[in-house]
């Protein structure tokens, strides 16, 4: 079953060592405090060994002796902590429910690279994950905050590092996750704005003239799917005879069934017939290739259609695509492809579609999230509803 270990903090570093005492017997069952006799006797021997080491430390009072003593114990072990240079590869190699997304892997590597640069600059002698202290973790997060990252981006950095240390904790012999006590940042949430009826109509008109971005815009407007899901929509997801799209969105992870409306039916029928002999599993193979290789390129092609429809880059009333953050390196998106999702949800709720049906189609797990982030009726829509009801 392995050997008993003991852990200490030394010079603001965590140290975990093997006591070279085998774990014997049966450990405590869930909900119980003690194991069987052999287990408890081996635990008592381990506690006595740890006490002898602590006693020697107190009597000797020599920090160098302490380091040598712990090092001697560690060198007798077969297992050591994970080196910082191997940390990201070990994390990305962990088993997952879904195949590893290349974009996510790239993001993780970028975050870990910045973390290693921070450690190298402040504590160049550190080599292992078990040597990272909460002070070092907090220093890294504060450095990223000083760069001007928005709250959402800063939380992504902190959350990623927290996950890495949490999932590798046992293998890296970490006593406590150094990122666990760092609070998430609070910031202003810039939700995508819903488009009005005339804006959606104009976008759909221009979408029919753009053979690349057009089908994606029509798909997004008719299904409320995110851009990545529209790009990677597969032939197997489309049931033309039933006029239904059955898909498991990448972010939500649960199957949703979306009715196919007339504008989308024309797009899908054309796409299915034109790609019938194409071995690609995707409805829009060219768009899928670009999304997997260069997702920013897809966003740029979609943005061109929005600009042609009368939207402007800067914040400008109900036509601005971007706005300046109070804190953050990049501007925040106000309108864009994701606005089609917001517009679909707003229109559905205004039309009286039950909230439970809306979240079944959009893949959300909670009605509250939809109402807070996606339901954005304008003054005219509210007036029409109230006039009709009162």
Describe the structure.
The protein has 390 residues and is mainly α. Helices cover 51% and strands 8% of the residues. The chain has helices at residues 37-60, 63-75, 87-92, 102-122, 134-146, 151-167, 197-207, 213-223, 227-231, 262-274, 285-293, 295-308, 337-350, 355-362, 367-373, 379-389, and strands at 3-10, 13-22, 238-239, 244-247, 256-259, 322-323, 332-333. The strands form 3 sheets. Strands 3-4-5 form a 3-stranded antiparallel β-sheet.
Topology of this structure?
Layout (H helix, E strand, L loop, with lengths): L2 E8 L2 E10 L14 H24 L2 H13 L11 H6 L9 H21 L11 H13 L4 H17 L29 H11 L5 H11 L3 H5 L6 E2 L4 E4 L8 E4 L2 H13 L10 H9 L1 H14 L13 E2 L8 E2 L3 H14 L4 H8 L4 H7 L5 H11 L1
Antiparallel strand pairs: 1-2, 3-4, 4-5, 6-7
Helix pairs in contact: 4-5, 7-8, 8-10, 8-12, 8-13, 11-12
Overview features:
mainly alpha; 3-stranded antiparallel sheet; hpI Integrase, Chain A; single chain; 390 residues; 8% strand; 3 domains
| Radius of gyration, taken over Cα atoms and rounded to an integer in Å | 28 Å
- Which percent range fits the helix content? 40-55%
* CATH architecture grouping of the largest domain: Orthogonal Bundle
* Biggest sheet architecture: 3 strands, antiparallel
**What portion of residues belong to β-strands?**
5-15%
Average pLDDT for all residues: 81
Number of strands: 7
SSE arrangement, N to C: EEHHHHHHHHHEEEHHHEEHHHH
- Structural classification: mainly alpha
Instruction: Name the overall outline.
Output: elongated
Classified in CATH, the superfamily of the largest domain is Intergrase catalytic core
Question: How many domains make up the coordinates?
Answer: 3
Tally of separate helices? 16
Give the distance, in angstroms, between the N- and C-terminal Cα atoms: 72 Å
Which CATH class of the largest domain? Mainly Alpha
Widest beta sheet: strand line-up: 3-4-5
CATH topology of the largest domain: hpI Integrase, Chain A
Low-confidence stretches: 62-79
């Amino acid at each position: 079953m392995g050997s008993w270990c003991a852990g200490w903090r030394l010079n603001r570093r965590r140290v975990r060592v093997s006591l070279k005492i085998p774990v014997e017997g049966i450990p405590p069952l869930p909900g119980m405090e003690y194991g069987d006799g052999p287990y408890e006797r081996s635990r008592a021997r381990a506690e006595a060994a740890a006490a002898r080491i602590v006693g020697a430390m107190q009597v000797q009072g020599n920090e160098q002796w302490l380091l040598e003593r712990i090092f001697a114990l560690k060198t007798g072990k077969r297992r050591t902590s994970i080196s910082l240079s191997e940390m990201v590869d070990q994390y990305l190699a962990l088993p997952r429910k879904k195949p590893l997304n290349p974009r996510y892997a790239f993001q993780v590597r970028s975050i870990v690279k910045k973390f290693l640069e921070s450690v190298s600059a402040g504590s160049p002698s550190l080599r292992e994950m078990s040597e990272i202290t909460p002070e070092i973790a907090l220093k890294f997060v504060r450095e990223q905050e000083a760069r001007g990252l928005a709250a959402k981006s800063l939380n992504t950095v902190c959350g990623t590092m927290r996950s890495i240390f949490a999932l590798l904790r046992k293998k890296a012999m970490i006593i406590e996750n150094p990122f666990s006590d760092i609070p998430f940042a609070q910031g202003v949430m810039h939700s995508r704005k819903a488009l009005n009826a005339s804006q959606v109509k104009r976008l759909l008109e221009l979408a029919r003239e753009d053979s690349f971005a057009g089908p994606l815009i029509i798909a997004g407007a008719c299904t409320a799917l995110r851009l990545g899901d529209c790009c990677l929509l597969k032939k197997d997801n489309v049931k033309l005879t039933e006029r239904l799209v059955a898909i498991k969105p990448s972010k939500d992870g649960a199957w949703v069934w979306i009715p196919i409306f007339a504008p989308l039916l024309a797009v899908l029928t054309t796409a299915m017939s034109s790609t019938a002999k194409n071995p690609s599993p995707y409805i829009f193979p060219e768009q899928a290739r670009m999304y997997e290789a260069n997702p920013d390129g897809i966003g740029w092609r979609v943005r061109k259609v929005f600009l042609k429809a009368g939207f402007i880059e800067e914040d400008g009333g109900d036509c601005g695509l971007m706005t300046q953050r109070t804190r953050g390196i990049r501007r925040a998106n106000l309108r864009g492809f994701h606005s089609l999702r917001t517009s679909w949800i707003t229109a559905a709720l205004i039309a009286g579609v039950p909230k439970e049906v809306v979240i079944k189609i959009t893949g959300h797990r909670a009605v509250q999230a939809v109402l807070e982030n996606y339901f954005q009726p304008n003054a005219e829509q509210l007036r029409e509803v109230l006039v009709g009801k009162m």
